[in-house]
Amino acid sequence: MPTLTGHIKKDDKVKVIAGKDRGKIGKVLRVDHKKDRILVENVNIVKRHARPSAKNKQGGILESEATLPRSNVMLMCSKCMKPTRIRMQKLEDGKKVRSCSKCDEIIDK
Fold first, then answer.
1. No. of H helices and E strands in the chain?
2. pLDDT digits 0-9 by tens, 6-19
3. pTM for this structure?
């Protein structure tokens, strides 16, 4: 069951807090709300063995990113450069935006 789907979005900078790649920082490439998983650039690299085909002429061992559970990452604040929880704020014009819970910097620009 997906939870808190709007807190991490595409092109956000996140830090991995659990798993084999703990401590790595990367950019979110894709978010899958139905499975509650995200794809992060240069994190959770897996190797797949491929046969030569029309698409992959040479074959061999291919490396690519695999998805992570959304609960294994935290959003990085651009101002204080720390992983942080998200606080939702309502602006004067009624728009809801994400903000850093540590320094109150607005993340959505």
1. 0, 10
2. 689 999 999 999 99
3. 0.83
